[in-house]
Amino acid sequence: MRVTTGEIREMKQRGEKIPMLTAYDYSTAKLIDEAGVPLILVGDSLGMVVLGYESTIPVTMDEMIHHTKAVVRGTKHALVIGDMPFMTYHISIDDALRNAARFIQEGGAQAVKLEGGESVAEKVRRLVECGIPVQGHIGLTPQSVHQLGGYKVVGKTPEAAVRLLNDAKALEEAGAFSIVLELVPAPLSRLITQRVAVPTIGIGAGPDCDGQVQVVSDLLGLFTDFVPKHAKQYARLCDTIKAAVADYIGEVKAGSFPTSKQSHTMDESIIAELARSS
Ligand code: KIV
Fold first, then answer.
1. Active-site residue numbers?
2. Architecture of domain 5-235
3. Domain spans of the chain?
4. What's the distance, CA 177 to chain centroid?
């Protein structure tokens, strides 16, 4: 049985911290799921860490659906959230509904995430009314990087802090089942977490959120273009991969790979006959 949004809310009520990770492909999703992560986000960070774009802005619905299907196929337990790309929920409520429905119907996700607070609350409400669970995302919203003028901490001034608290309340009121807080000062995250009943999931938002989310490629040390301050590398698979590939190259060049262990045999007399007759 998959984790439900109700169980995620209950984790907050019990004071149990909620780990969340991104995933973009079948194999990684399967490992993460088997390790017991309850929430998996097919993030539009896909654009940067898998597809090599400079930001999340070029990511399309078709790319997201393709990867969401793979993640869903790899998981049995986690609740899978599809991240709605830039401009797929801004133009109209109908557009938001149509694209969110694709994540659920075609992608097989159990929920969607979208960026924004009060400005998207009506859309969140409509999706929830139609039976689509929604995760909110406030603070640094990377799809608005050009408007925000960079990937910066949000909420440091009194006005910005009030705006963020109101955004969180608007999302809760609209029916979001959880809210990602990205690059929010720790004391403000703590206050927001106290003031809303739905779980907050932080990334660069301090230790007092109800849960934490990390980009899996940062956590495993797979993405090496840059390492965000809020990321912790629990492994450095970049080094492991490079060392393994260097070994492979060396063995192929030396003729020591493959050995008989990796080879298939057959009746040698057939080959002897073939060699004689050809
Ligand atoms: O796309 C993503 O990976 C995200 C997380 C950072 C929350 O939105």
1. 182
2. Alpha-Beta Barrel (3.20)
3. 5-235, 240-277
4. 16
